[in-house]
Fold this sequence. Notes:
Layout: H1 22-29, H2 39-86
Amino acid sequence: MCESRCVGRPEMDLHGPPARDKSLESVQGQPQEPVSVPQTLTSTLEHIVGQLDVLTQTVSILEQRLTLAEDKLKQCLENQQLIMQRTPS
């Protein structure tokens, strides 16, 4: 199910008043049959998942590089402070 992760689709309230969700109840009361998904949709979704994996890896690498840059900047600032303290005014 999509839940609240889907963009542009409101989350369905399955715990609302029974009178409000009569059509939902009638659908849930019937046995569900397997849904046939077209191959093009399946391959498109698999491609999207693959692209999301690539994006996730890219963000992870960028986070690592940012952390290294921040650590190096911190070290430079600490060294600068030491130099300023040692230099006679």
